[in-house]
Amino acid sequence: MSDATAPDRAARRDKARRARRAGKRLAVGLAFLGPNIVGFLCFTAIPLVFALVLAFSNWDLRLHNMFKDEPLKFVGLDNFRRLLGTPEFYRYLGNTLFMMMGIPFGIAGALGSAILLSQDLRGGSGRNWRRLILYVGVAVVLVGGGGALLVAAGAPLAGLTLLLGGLACAVLMGGVLGGSTVYRTLFYLPFFTNGVAVFLLWKRFYSPIDGPVNRALQPVLDRLTTAVQATPAPAVRAGSWLALAVMAAVMFLGVRTLRRLWRDGEMGAVGVLLAAGLMTLPAWLGLRWWPTGALALGSVVIGGAALLGVATLLLGGRGSGERFVAPRGEAFGTGLMLGVGLLLLGVLCVGAGRVFDALPAMAGHPEGLTPPLWLSSPFWAKPAMIFMGLWAAVGGNTMLLYLAGLSGVPGELYEAADIDGAGRFSRFWHVTWPQLAPVTFFVVVMGVIGGLQGGFEMAKTMTNGGPAGTTTFLSFYIYTEGFETGRLGYAAAVTWTLFGLVFLVTIFNWKFGNRYVND
Amino acid sequence: MSTTERDSARVHAACEEVAMLPPPRGVPGAAAQRKLWGSLAVHVVLAAISCVMILPFVWMVLTSFKTLDESFAAGWLPSALRWENYGALLNPDPDDLRTRGMNYLRWYWNSLFVASCVTFLQVFTSALAAFSFARLKWPGRDKVFLLYLSTMMLPGLVMMIPNYQIMITLGLVDTYWGLIIPAAFSAFGTFLLRQFMLTIPASLDEAAEIDGASKWRLFWDVILPLARPGLITLTIFTFIGNYQSFFWPLVMLKSSSRYTLPVGLLFFDSSQGQQLNLLMAGITMSIIPMLLVFVLLQKYLVKGIQLGAVKG
Predict the structure, then answer these.
(1) What angle do CA A419, A424, A428 make, to 5 degrees?
(2) At a CB cut-off of 8 Å and minimum separation 6, what does B35 contact?
(3) Cβ contact (<8 Å) for B129 and A36?
(4) What is the Cα–Cα distance from A102 to A344, expressed in whole angstroms?
(5) Which residues on B lie below 8 Å from A195 (Cβ)?
(6) Segment A423-461, tens digit of pLDDT
(7) B160 vs A contacts (CB less than 8 Å)
(8) CA angle at residue B180 from B269 to B222, to 5 degrees?
(9) Which residue of B has its CA nearest to A213?
(10) B53, B122, B194, B265: which to substitute to probe chain A, counting the most A Cβ within 10 Å?
(11) What domains appear along chain A, each with residue ranges and CATH number?
(12) Which residues of B touch A136 (CB under 8 A)?
């Protein structure tokens, strides 16, 4: 008996000691966590529960305040039902999604900047570097001296020419002496300072009558007007056929790429179909934009041909033995990105075609071509914001992430590509781009999540949601409903709907992101 | 040995001789020359893009030196370097109609004050929590951390509405505390500092324990100094984020004397926006603190972002 109890007692004592130690560890851990977790509970956890309650109630600051206290009611799903039954909601969601068209362009620009910044900026060996400084110095003297002469001669716009020339020379000199850090700093500046101040600055930059953008555009458009008036109208309209030809070439390249990916078993059916579907969307857009029968028909024929090409590829590839079979969901993300890229190119082609088609009529107008009204125009307000966003995004965090990614690409891969005789483009396509896939994926997901919630500051400072609600994004809608009107319950329902959308993207990230990260 | 074999042997020898010769003299020079022109082209493209990037800022600064008439005229250049616009904002004349209802210096001070308070508190509470998550072991720790992480996914807008109601209940609407307190705690900051603290070797903790140091000593004297790059990164993020913060101050602040710069500038734009030169002077001055932070601490910023710590 005593043999058995002694270890028992020891074990019990041991256990008690361990429990005491665990309790002490817990106390120390929580003591350090204390200040933070109090705030976390008060301003994150409790509000979270509160937000859920709000979304199902008729909480309204006009009904429940210090003067008035009407009974609070739970209205079940009424807020959500009203939201989904409001046509404005879909319009504002559409506005929000429209702004996301800037994301691919921003990412492409950031990748381009990162590649440029990671080039050899010293021209190889040390002697070359010195020669580089000499060349740039001579250029600076030439441009600066030329500008000074222009001013002396009293040439029109000489001051501005001199200013811009001097600025360019100063930047170039700084870059040659300071290397890529100087450029990186200047590139990152718009992103870093992006906020209310910069939005107000751009609002004035875009000002329709006296803003610098339109002041610079007007002479260009005047020259274009005379050029178009001098050309016979059918010749100008032929430009839209050229645009259609470019679109056909883009579609052909797209189908060929899809075909290769499918044959090699690199992409599954879902990815191929998605890319093909997105790719053909611009063709249907052509139907809406072109009243002229022949052009609309042309774009639809191109889109149909592309779709047909993909269909034959999916059906025809099955029997032949040369195809590797990919799982259906394989490379879904790549298919999506490819599809979005082709979609945007196609939209650009269709848009350019539409412009060429309408140019003779527009130039025939007594005032000639006039620059857009930008933020005051329902059509141009969102594109204007996208351009501004690109200005900030091209040198932003995305570029920094790509720079880090580029320095992580193993040099052996490039050496192997050189031995295989790869050119510049195929080096990029077969080495750089796949190696950067994790960064790209991360950036796209973050961009979409940010884009869904964003746009409030821009809308509030630049347009106040207008003109005619064309720049009212979901975040701005939440602000007006919740804080201007006071319908907190309804606004909370909108935020939860927004959360649902963000959550979908996050699930997409979990499902497909891990594959990229583990590679 | 047949003739063909002998021939081929001779050819081989000749080939080897050729291979051992130094390469023709013109080739490396030409390659270097090509490299030189290539990098010059890259320089020119980079400089051109840089110019586009700073062009709006150049216009802003130039306009801030103009008179009102000049600011609506075509040229970019002011006729002289005038500091009057800055003077009118910083030292407003009560009779000056152009700056009526404005209190630019006060807004400036409010912004810097609120952003500094938030930054100090947030970095401090985040560092404590990060230490607890990264360097201490306690039951349930990972579950609590997961809870923190999962709230980072929520859109900030979800929390804004109930927090506004909470602020109304606490009577903190239109006060500095209403801006400072909710921003003093951050799951993102905790996460960022935890990532930094995890990279510090665990042997330091053991050494400190053997020396009989308390956990507080370990935190204050060992871990915090080593986590300095992380602390600086978070400081930059928090300071700039709060200096720029717009939605929450816009909702919370009602009286002009408590406005922060973004809200004040919006007010200025809507009430006195036709004073383009004054507006640009105000915008220029509001960007200066960010420029200072950026230029002085850029090194840490780039590193922090590239470590995967991207906010939003």
Answers:
(1) 95
(2) A120, A123, A124, A128
(3) yes
(4) 10
(5) 244, 246, 262
(6) 888 888 788 888 888 888 888 888 888 899 988 999 999
(7) 482, 495
(8) 130
(9) B56
(10) B53
(11) 56-119+372-519 (1.10.3720.10), 120-210 (no CATH), 211-371 (no CATH)
(12) 40, 43
Distance CA A65, CA A59 (A): 10
* Ranges A99-113, A130-144, A233-247, A269-283: which has the least confidence: A130-144
What is the CATH number assigned to the segment(s) B106-306? 1.10.3720.10
Is B187 near chain A, with CB under 8 Å?
yes
pLDDT score recorded for residue B180: 92
- Residues on chain A touching B290 (C-beta within 8 angstroms): 192-193
Q: Do A401 and B306 touch (CB under 8 A)?
A: yes
Q: Do B305 and A397 touch (CB under 8 A)?
A: yes
10-residue stretch averages of pLDDT, chain B, 312 residues long: 50 49 52 77 88 91 89 81 87 78 88 94 92 85 85 84 88 91 87 85 84 85 86 88 92 90 90 84 92 83 63 34
* Bond before B229 cis per omega within 30 degrees: no
Question: What single string gives the DSSP state of each residue in A235-274?
Answer: HHHHHHHHHHHHHHHHHHHHHHHHHHHHHTT-S-HHHHHH
To test the contact with chain A by mutation, choose from B35, B36, B157 the residue with the greatest count of A C-beta atoms within 10 A, namely: B157
Q: Which amino acid is at A59?
A: W
Domain ranges of chain B: 28-55, 106-306
Q: Which residues of A touch B47 (CB under 8 A)?
A: 168, 171-172, 175, 183
Burial class of A181 by CB neighbour count within 10 A (0 to 12, 13 to 18, 19+): middle
| Residue A517 pLDDT greater than 60, yes or no | no
Burial letters B98-111, b for 16+ CB under 10 A, else e: bbeebbbeebbebb
CB contact under 8 A, A483 and B269: no
